[in-house]
């Protein structure tokens, strides 16, 4: 009885967040068909009862990762998700990619680690005033290097190894990240709208991946599940 009440509450929260809005039928990926409830004004409506079931599966997996002290890499580079991904990952000290997925983040991780190490080295030298030995022009060039490295790698400084899993907002948009995770066998949790291939991820959460309110809700759910797993 309590579980039913909790599930209804979850569905109400998702509905309020606009999680039920998909795309037009012409954009639907065949794998999303079982999760479509109907169509309204040309827009497909996701079946939130089914979404709630998939969300719970994803949350249980996240809890096991947290319990085992594992890392989840948060990925979401489109404008609606950048800030939410960064804030969510930071809240639980997890690595994230919110600006641009640099090819090889997973599949060429040793090389990426070198870039991260360079960023940390330059940061340290700047903080200690050790860059004062360079000319003004040289310092300007170094600052540009730091800025570029920050933009590409600041979110993954804490990622010392391949993550145990990846949480993605919009796997269609993050196709390169998805392919790299698949290649290495890294489990993928994804908030995926009706235009996504839900079968290419391990834990697909069918829902609106393009509105701030919806993305915020699902990121929060993953973060809360991780926190809950840590306390078990």
Automatic annotation (TrEMBL):
<dbReference type="InterPro" id="IPR018130">
    <property type="entry name" value="Ribosomal_uS2_CS"/>
</dbReference>
<keyword id="KW-0689">Ribosomal protein</keyword>
<dbReference type="Pfam" id="PF00318">
    <property type="entry name" value="Ribosomal_S2"/>
</dbReference>
<keyword id="KW-0687">Ribonucleoprotein</keyword>
<comment type="similarity">
    <text>Belongs to the universal ribosomal protein uS2 family.</text>
</comment>
<protein>
    <recommendedName>
        <fullName>Small ribosomal subunit protein uS2</fullName>
    </recommendedName>
</protein>
<dbReference type="InterPro" id="IPR005706">
    <property type="entry name" value="Ribosomal_uS2_bac/mit/plastid"/>
</dbReference>
<dbReference type="InterPro" id="IPR023591">
    <property type="entry name" value="Ribosomal_uS2_flav_dom_sf"/>
</dbReference>
<dbReference type="GO" id="GO:0003735">
    <property type="term" value="F:structural constituent of ribosome"/>
</dbReference>
<dbReference type="InterPro" id="IPR001865">
    <property type="entry name" value="Ribosomal_uS2"/>
</dbReference>
<dbReference type="GO" id="GO:0006412">
    <property type="term" value="P:translation"/>
</dbReference>
<dbReference type="GO" id="GO:0022627">
    <property type="term" value="C:cytosolic small ribosomal subunit"/>
</dbReference>
């Amino acid at each position: 009885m309590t579980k039913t009440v909790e599930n209804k509450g979850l569905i109400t929260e998702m509905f309020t967040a606009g999680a039920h809005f998909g795309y037009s039928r012409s954009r639907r990926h065949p794998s999303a068909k079982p999760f479509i409830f109907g169509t309204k004004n040309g827009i497909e409506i996701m079946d939130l009862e089914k979404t709630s079931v998939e969300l719970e599966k994803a949350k249980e997996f996240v809890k096991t990762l947290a319990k085992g002290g594992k890392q989840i890499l948060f990925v979401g580079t489109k404008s609606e998700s950048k800030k939410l991904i960064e804030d969510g990952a930071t809240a639980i000290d997890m690595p994230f990619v919110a600006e641009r997925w640099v090819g090889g983040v997973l599949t060429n991780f040793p090389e990426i680690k070198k870039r991260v190490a360079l960023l940390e080295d330059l940061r340290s030298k700047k903080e200690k005033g050790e860059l004062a030995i360079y000319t003004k022009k040289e310092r300007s060039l170094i600052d540009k290097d730091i800025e570029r490295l920050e933009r590409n790698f600041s979110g993954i400084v804490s990622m010392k190894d391949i993550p145990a899993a990846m949480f993605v907002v919009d796997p269609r948009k993050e196709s390169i990240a998805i392919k790299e995770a698949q290649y290495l066998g890294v489990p993928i949790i994804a908030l995926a709208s009706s235009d996504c291939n839900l079968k290419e991820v391990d834990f697909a959460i069918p829902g609106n991946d393009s509105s701030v309110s919806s993305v915020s809700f699902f990121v929060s759910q993953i973060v809360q599940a991780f926190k809950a797993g840590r306390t078990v």
